[in-house]
Design a protein that fits this description.
322 residues, alpha/beta, D-Maltodextrin-Binding Protein, domain 2, 2 domains, 13 helices, 19% strand, globular
């Protein structure tokens, strides 16, 4: 009898403790959540981050805000996120630069595989090869033919070493067998200004950040990535159509959390994001911004991330990227 009484007391105390301290995912989030983006405002990843922040905020009934922490090819922002408390209240929206920097620009004391938890692979983005409106090149074949005869004469813009534009153009140049001169920019707007003025020969950018200028006639699109033409640019061929091996999207975006974040919180964020990606208005944004939403479990992201590290290690070891 005494044993039953003691057992009842223990169960009662345990229930009281659980009631006072609910499981993390049940009460999460009960305050604002920060999403760190390792690049300046205005680019495709920033646009996606603000969409994600708004949608998660609506779903959770809490403020979710974006904090831009640019620098060191994405390492500064990623490290800042990794060093934050592993409680789910700081997340990192990262991209392929996370995988590239493991080889190209490792940061002492920071390893994204060791220091970050995969949450969800959100999207990929189409790339578009553009030239200035007054460019003599009307096709990719003309551009490649000229670059082969004049190696290093044509230059291209990017938002810095390790950025999506830098990586995509390096990959394109290697596949096409041409040498191009890299001109990195800190400002998206300045790169656009120089491109329109003809001071830059070409630019491979994510479609979402470029479509407005293309449709306005300020830039001329020569090719897009992906296996089908883009609905917004039906007259622009794919790289695949042109016989260039640059087929699938090189730009991808995913949510990570600091290592040690509770698994149930990671599971909740992943599940909520999967529901958000399936919303009708998000499908419309796929078309507008050139995204392809992926979703899935944290394990899907973890496997993709490891594969990307290997892929970009091969590209980063090429002379052109060095």
């Amino acid at each position: 009898m005494r044993r039953n009484v003691v057992g009842a007391i223990v169960i009662g105390v345990a229930a009281a403790v659980l009631a006072a301290n609910p499981a993390p995912a049940q009460s999460y989030p009960d305050r604002s959540v920060r999403i760190i983006i390792a690049f300046a405002a205005g680019g495709t990843i920033d646009t996606l981050g603000r969409i994600v922040a708004q949608k998660l905020g609506d779903a959770w009934g809490q403020s979710v805000f974006v904090e831009n922490r640019p620098g060191a090819g994405g390492n500064i922002g990623a490290q800042a996120a990794a060093q934050s408390a592993p409680d789910g209240y700081t997340l990192h929206l990262g991209g392929q630069t996370l995988a590239v920097n493991v080889t190209l620009a490792p940061l002492k004391g920071f390893d994204p595989v060791r220091d970050l938890e995969p949450v969800i692979w959100i999207a990929t983005a189409r790339d578009v090869l553009m030239v200035p409106p007054n460019s003599p090149f009307r096709s990719v074949s003309e551009l490649i033919a000229y670059a082969k005869v004049h190696p290093g004469e044509l230059n291209y813009a990017s938002l810095g070493p390790g950025s999506s534009g830098h990586l995509a153009t390096t990959l394109f140049g290697d596949l096409a067998g041409i040498k191009l001169q890299h001109v990195p920019y800190n400002s998206f707007s300045q790169a656009v200004t120089d491109m329109i003025a003809g001071r830059i020969s070409l630019w491979i950018s994510t479609l979402g950040g470029a479509i407005g200028n293309i449709q306005a006639g300020k830039m001329r699109a020569l090719a897009v990535s992906g296996r089908q033409r883009d609905a917004q640019l039906p007259d622009v061929p794919t790289f695949q159509e042109l016989g260039v091996g640059f087929v699938d999207e090189t730009s991808w975006y995913a949510l990570f959390a600091p290592k040690g974040t509770p698994k149930d919180i990671i599971g909740k964020i992943s599940a909520d994001m999967n529901r958000i990606l399936a919303l009708p208005d998000m499908k419309a944004r796929e078309l507008t911004f050139g995204y392809r939403f992926i979703g899935g479990s944290p394990d899907v992201l973890a496997k993709m991330f490891q594969a990307e590290i290997g892929k970009w290690a091969d590209v980063a070891n090429s002379a052109s990227l060095k």
